[in-house]
Design brief:
Largest sheet: 5 strands, mixed
Strand content: 5-15%
Distance between the termini: 60 Å
Shape: globular
Helix content: 55-70%
Radius of gyration: 23 Å
Structural class: mainly alpha
Number of helices: 21
Order of helices and strands: HHHHHHHHHHHHHHHHHHEHEHEEEH
Strand order of the largest sheet: 2-1-3-5-4
Number of strands: 5
């Protein structure tokens, strides 16, 4: 890398840190911050990697940047590993920051970035293993596979399509060493799931809502996945991936992963809504397959790539503005919660707080820097059902913040525009009794 290229990366890193410190936590970020205060081998919604990264930087002053700092680092670590695997680092960097999700992922403390990072490590280690399956590389690959699953369960798709691409790898003795190391390394999480009745798997595979077949939903999925591979260059990226010849085992795996994952979620979209971030890990194989394409030497694709790069980098500045300043309602999740939390605290006076939803409980917990419980009344089960912070409260009476209209109390609007009620002097026993009637 030239000095100017290194300088560019450093400036983008500083820019990411600046943006990451300029807006409040998303609901799920505050939720995962609570994960980090109670480290465990698993959580109801996700494996523990996201919590560990937040915990590593908990020595920093209490702030949004402290929560996100490790994720900015992981983003650039992912890019650096990706560039060691590529032959055209400049194109690789431009593509990476032209993928909307990969580019913006370092700004948020979410499980998607650990998955992206572990995918880059997996591809790097897999390439070494395919070249030489000695015990050292086999053990290392097994540990990496476990790390992939500790990041997010979607990592299993990488493993599945790797084996599908190279079925003869199962005949190697080293394959079973890899599998054994991965299983042993991941066993603590499996044990956690066993002790919690495999609640996470039940939720993700059985309890998520299904819907009827919709051509529009399928069209939206395919369109979105096209442009998530580069704002204005997504179709070119997919064209180069499909066109790229699988002239070695590693490229064959990358191609199977890229096309296989898209096909897997396409079939899933027949009955369920597919979240855009579920395929973020495809960033790595897509770039590795397309960065050598001669397309990027042509004038128009090159211009489109630079434009995509610039727009995606600049667009994140919108996060620094409130929803009223830009008239974007979605920004309400990232602004005004600190002052709103103080308003709630003032209204409840000395009463302990309890919220109905895990989102509001998490936001209040972070911005008041105090663990506040979520009852989950008429809402889905989540990690608060295991934590039960309310059991350590000094009184049986609580101030309940709820969006359920069967209660009566002081009306308040959240920064993201939702109506809630502040209900004072509710008994904990009565609230839990109310919830138990729904079971």
């Amino acid at each position: 890398m030239t000095k100017s290229f290194k300088l560019s990366l450093m400036l983008i890193f500083i820019y990411q840190l600046f943006i990451a410190s300029g807006f409040e936590l998303a609901h799920d970020e505050a939720y995962y911050w609570l994960y980090s205060k109670h480290l465990d081998w698993g959580y109801f919604d996700h494996p523990p990697f996201v919590a560990i990264i937040i915990k590593l930087f908990s020595f920093l002053p209490h702030s949004e940047l402290a929560v996100r700092f490790g994720f900015v680092i992981l983003q650039f670590a992912s890019l650096l590993i990706l560039m060691t695997l590529s032959s055209v680092p400049l194109i690789t960097m431009l593509l990476f920051f032209s993928f909307p999700l990969a580019s913006a992922s370092g700004l948020f403390a979410l499980p998607d970035l650990p998955l992206l990072f572990m995918t880059s490590v997996y591809c790097w280690m897999l390439k070494r293993y395919l070249k030489n399956d000695n015990p050292q590389n086999s053990i290392s690959l097994g540990i990496v596979i476990a790390g992939l699953l500790y990041a997010k369960y979607h990592g299993i798709l990488l493993i599945f399509f790797t084996i599908l691409a190279l079925p003869r790898v199962c005949l190697k003795k080293s394959f079973y060493l890899v599998a054994l190391v991965a299983l042993v390394s991941f066993f603590p999480h499996i044990l956690w799931q066993y002790h919690h009745e495999f609640s996470t798997l039940k939720y993700h595979f059985l309890e998520r809502p299904s819907s009827s077949f919709s051509l529009m939903r399928i069209f939206e999925y395919l369109t979105l996945q096209t442009f998530l591979a580069g704002l204005f260059v997504g179709p070119l990226v997919w064209y180069s991936v499909i066109k790229e010849k699988s002239d070695d085992s590693f490229k064959r795996v990358l191609k199977f992963i890229s096309l296989g994952v898209i096909a897997f979620f396409l079939i899933s979209s027949f009955s369920k809504k597919i979240e855009a971030n579920w395929t973020i890990f495809l960033t790595i194989p897509l770039i590795l397959l397309s960065e050598q394409s001669g397309l990027w030497n042509k004038k128009i694709p090159r211009i489109l790539l630079y434009i995509s790069f610039a727009i995606i980098l600049l667009a994140r500045c919108a996060l620094l503005f409130s929803p009223t300043q830009l008239n974007i309602k979605r920004l309400g999740e990232f602004h005004g919660w600190k002052s709103w939390s103080e308003e709630v605290k003032k209204s409840c006076q000395e009463l302990p707080l309890m919220a109905n939803s895990y989102q509001i409980a998490s936001k209040l917990s972070f911005y008041l820097n105090s663990e506040i419980h979520a009852l989950n009344y008429r809402s889905r089960k989540n990690q608060f059902d295991y934590w039960r912070f309310d059991q350590s409260q000094p009184t049986n009476q609580v101030c309940y913040i709820t969006d359920k209209n069967e209660f009566s109390g002081e009306k308040l609007i959240t920064p993201d525009g939702k109506n809630v009620l502040i209900v004072k002097n509710l008994g904990l026993d009565w609230l839990w009794g109310l919830k138990s009637k729904l079971r």
